[in-house]
Specification:
464 residues; mainly alpha
């Protein structure tokens, strides 16, 4: 296959996204698998004060958002963390590992969505309509999750023409499910139901302390706040991104955080933490069952199903295209950049990312996959916050948003705090999965270095 030739004179992307569409994109990117699948797991770590880790996760993400806003204003290119890392440190290996970590986070996120698809929401629909009585851990549902990953691969291979307006529709569907939960909570408060005393309870595991319990829950809840950084990749398609990005991103994150806190409050009011933890990825289904017994559960199950499908598809598309971009830039073996002659999609990259996802779905649970996703991105965000400070030495030719210095400083500290094993209270499994994934990247880098020597990296060309 002939090597891809660099495209030197590309037409600009169509700037079709205004402030309202961008706001919906940010909210839609954040909402999804995190809150729909991990509420029970977070409750198992913190107890009744379930709202607290979601609030703290928002604060950490909010600090990092300031760095992204400064950098996207200064460099309005669709490249994100890899571009900022490369410009700040000019260490090709570090740039590659950041890009590879982002790619891996897409796969782990999609894998957790696949498990929620099979073991929770599809299972509930089968229970409602066919009275299926299998447990969520049954191999049948793991098999359905793997089939789901295969289905995403086929859609990915066929080629998906995505539209931000489609994202608006899917965002409204995801949002409707969370509004249902919030309304159930409001109805419970009006009728004097629920147990407000649970909202301040923090369960401290044996051998731990309150601080570590809160940190551990926050590290997992952070998975629910990721996604906002994907909006950076829409910079070249926005009208006046320097002006509209700050307001859209900060408002979007604030809206998502408010929804999450209200959902968490409702969940704790109605159901004890140990029962939420036992329900795991089906915690919100249990909230609907207890808070609104007459509500058709299949409707909420269908909404949850669409929410995780949307999250998984977006993440697998991102992962395969990023891998393809790395191959095109010749920083991993070039066969990953193979494009199918008829479908014009990066089929080798799709096969590879799908294979990794199948392995993860077969060997890990939702909690570990969600924890690994947040771990990978917290490492990336730590680097981005530091890069923001470093790049202030590089002059800009235009005015742009400038974060207050304390924001990237605190962002780097808090992200690192939630990523370090001694302070985060994370289970060892998160580091094991992340380690294996990054080791695979290291192997690919090494093979390519032996075959082709040192290669220049152009991060703005990675996102395809």
């Amino acid at each position: 296959m002939a090597e891809a030739t660099p495209q030197t004179e590309q037409p600009e992307l169509h700037r079709a996204i205004g402030p309202k569409l961008l706001l919906f994109f940010v909210v839609g990117d954040i909402l999804g698998t995190g809150i729909y699948a991990l509420t029970g797991n977070v409750a198992g770590k913190i107890g009744g004060a379930l709202w607290l880790p979601f609030l703290l996760a928002f604060v950490v993400a909010f600090l990092t958002a300031f760095s992204y806003l400064e950098l996207v204003g200064k460099y309005p290119k669709a490249a994100g963390a890899a571009l900022y890392t490369n410009r700040a440190f000019k260490i090709h290996f570090l740039t590659f590992m950041v890009a590879f970590a982002v790619m891996c986070s897409g796969i782990t996120s999609a894998s957790s969505a696949a498990l929620a698809f099979g073991r929770t929401y599809l299972r509930q629909l089968l229970v409602e309509f066919f009275d299926v009585a299998l447990s969520p851990e049954s191999l049948v549902f793991t098999g359905l999750a793997i089939i789901f990953i295969g289905g995403l691969a086929l859609i990915n291979f066929r080629g998906v023409s995505e539209s931000v307006k489609t994202n608006v529709v899917l965002t409204c569907i995801e949002l409707s499910g969370l509004v249902i939960i919030i309304l159930i909570g409001a109805w419970a408060v009006v009728n004097g139901d629920g147990e407000p005393g649970r909202l301040t309870e923090i369960n401290v595991p044996s051998g731990s302390n309150v601080m570590l319990a809160v940190t551990s829950a926050t590290a997992l809840a952070f998975f629910a706040m990721v996604g906002f950084e994907d909006s950076v990749n829409m910079a070249e398609e926005c009208r006046n991104p320097v002006k509209i990005f700050p307001r859209a991103m900060l408002w979007g994150m604030g809206i998502a955080a408010l929804i999450y806190v209200l959902v968490a409050l409702t969940s704790s009011l109605l159901i004890p933490a140990d029962e939420l933890a036992k329900a795991s990825s089906g915690a919100l289904l249990k909230v609907v069952t207890v808070g609104a017994p007459g509500f058709p559960l299949w409707i909420f199950a269908l909404i949850g199903l669409l929410a995780v499908i949307n999250s998984a598809l977006i993440n697998m598309l991102m992962a395969s295209r990023l891998l393809y971009g790395m191959a095109n830039e010749k920083i991993i073996p070039k066969f990953f950049g193979a494009v199918h002659p008829f479908r014009r999609t990066p089929w080798i990259s799709i096969v590879f990312t799908t294979g990794v996802a199948v392995i993860l779905v077969s060997t890990a649970d939702i909690g570990k996959l969600g924890g690994t996703t947040s771990l990978l991105l917290l490492i990336v965000f730590t680097i981005v916050n530091v890069a923001c400070l470093v790049l202030r030495r590089e002059p800009s030719e235009h005015k742009h948003f400038r974060a207050p210095t304390w924001a990237p400083v605190l962002g780097a500290i808090t992200c690192a705090y939630l990523a370090i094993p001694w302070t985060s209270g994370r289970p060892a499994g998160d580091y094991v999965i992340a380690g294996y994934l990054l080791l695979a990247g290291l192997v690919l880098w090494g093979i390519n270095r032996v075959l082709h020597g040192k290669v220049e990296i152009h991060p703005e060309n990675l996102r395809k």
